[in-house]
C-alpha cells in the first residue's frame, strides 16, 4: 500500500517552518530529534522553507516505527529519506544531516539525486572504525566496551557517553539535553542503532555520490576523527571541508552561532 503524504508527515513527525523559494531539509543524528535544530531553524526560517523530520529509532521520537531487522543497515534510512522527500514533492533541496544522518542523506542522494541540490554533512563519518591505515577513531575493543557498558548499566552509560560526545562536563546544558534524549530512548533500540552505526563502512560508496557536498567538522570531536572528515572531502567529488572553531559532536547545540555562520557561507 502506498502511503499518502499526510501519512508520511505523521510517521516521521515532519514539519514545515518558514518561507522561501528553496527548501532546507534538516535531519537529526543519533540520540537527538529535530528540536536539536531549533537554533538553525530560527536563523534561516525567513530565508528558506525548512523541512525537519525524525528517522525511526534515531532519537526519542518515532520509536514505534523502529524495526531491528529492517534497520540493520543505513540503506533503510536512506530509503526513508528519499520516500519522505518524494511523498512531500520536495526536489532540489539543500539537505543538512548531522552525524549518521549526513551519510544517510548521501546514500539517499545516490538513490534519487534529483531530490538534492546540495548536501551538508555535519560531524559525519563514512566509517567509525580503525581499519588498516584508515583512522576512524574506534578499535573493535572500543565498540565492544561501549556496548557492554551500556548493556550493564544504561543510565550510567548515558551520562558518560553524553559527556564524551559533547566534550563537556555533566552540568553543561548540551550534555544534559543529550543525556535526557538518550534516556528517553528504548535501550534496545539505542544500542541496536549505535552498533549499526559503529559497524558501518560506507567508504566504497562515496564515489556513487554525485551531489555537491560540504563537510563541516569541529576541531575536536571524540566521535569523528579529523582524518575521517578529510576522507569524506577527498572521496566525495567536488566537496569541501571546513573545520569549525568549536569542539564536540553536537555543535549545532553547543556552538550554534558557529554552525550558523558556516551554513551562511555554504548555503545557496
TrEMBL record:
Keywords: Hydrolase, Plasmid. Signal peptide: none annotated. Residues 24-262 form the AB hydrolase-1 domain. GO terms for molecular function: hydrolase activity. Transmembrane segments: none annotated. InterPro entries: AB_hydrolase_1, AB_hydrolase_fold. Belongs to the AB hydrolase superfamily. This is Alpha/beta hydrolase. It comes from Azospirillum humicireducens.
Amino acid at each position: 500500500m502506498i502511503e499518502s503524504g499526510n501519512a508520511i508527515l505523521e510517521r516521521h513527525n515532519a514539519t514545515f517552518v518558514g518561507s522561501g523559494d528553496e527548501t532546507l531539509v534538516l535531519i537529526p543524528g543519533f540520540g537527538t530529534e529535530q528540536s536539536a535544530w531549533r537554533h538553525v531553524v530560527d536563523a534561516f526560517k525567513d530565508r528558506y522553507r525548512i523541512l525537519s523530520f525524525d528517522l525511526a529509532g534515531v532519537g526519542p521520537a518515532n520509536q514505534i516505527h523502529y524495526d531491528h531487522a529492517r534497520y540493520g543497515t543505513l540503506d533503510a534510512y536512506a530509503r526513508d529519506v528519499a520516500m519522505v522527500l518524494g511523498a512531500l514533492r520536495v526536489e532540489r533541496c539543500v539537505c543538512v544531516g548531522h552525524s549518521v544522518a549526513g551519510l544517510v542523506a548521501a546514500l539517499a542522494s545516490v538513490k534519487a539525486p534529483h531530490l538534492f541540490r546540495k548536501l551538508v554533512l555535519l560531524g559525519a563519518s563514512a566509517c567509525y572504525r580503525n581499519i588498516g591505515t584508515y583512522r576512524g577513531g574506534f578499535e573493535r575493543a572500543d565498540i565492544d566496551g561501549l556496548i557492554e557498558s551500556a548493556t550493564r548499566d544504561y543510565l550510567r552509560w548515558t551520562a558518560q557517553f553524553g559527556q564524551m560526545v559533547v566534550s563537556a562536563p555533566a552540568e553543561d546544558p548540551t550534555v544534559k539535553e543529550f543525556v535526557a534524549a538518550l534516556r528517553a530512548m528504548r535501550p534496545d533500540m539505542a544500542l541496536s542503532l549505535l552498533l549499526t552505526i559503529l559497524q558501518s563502512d560506507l567508504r566504497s560508496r562515496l564515489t556513487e555520490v554525485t551531489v555537491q557536498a560540504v563537510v563541516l567538522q569541529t576541531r575536536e570531536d571524540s566521535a569523528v576523527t579529523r582524518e575521517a572528515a578529510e576522507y569524506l572531502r577527498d572521496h566525495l567529488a567536488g566537496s569541501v571541508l571546513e573545520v569549525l572553531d568549536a569542539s564536540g559532536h553536537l555543535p549545532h547545540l553547543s556552538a550554534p552561532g558557529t554552525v550558523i555562520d558556516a551554513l551562511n557561507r555554504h548555503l545557496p
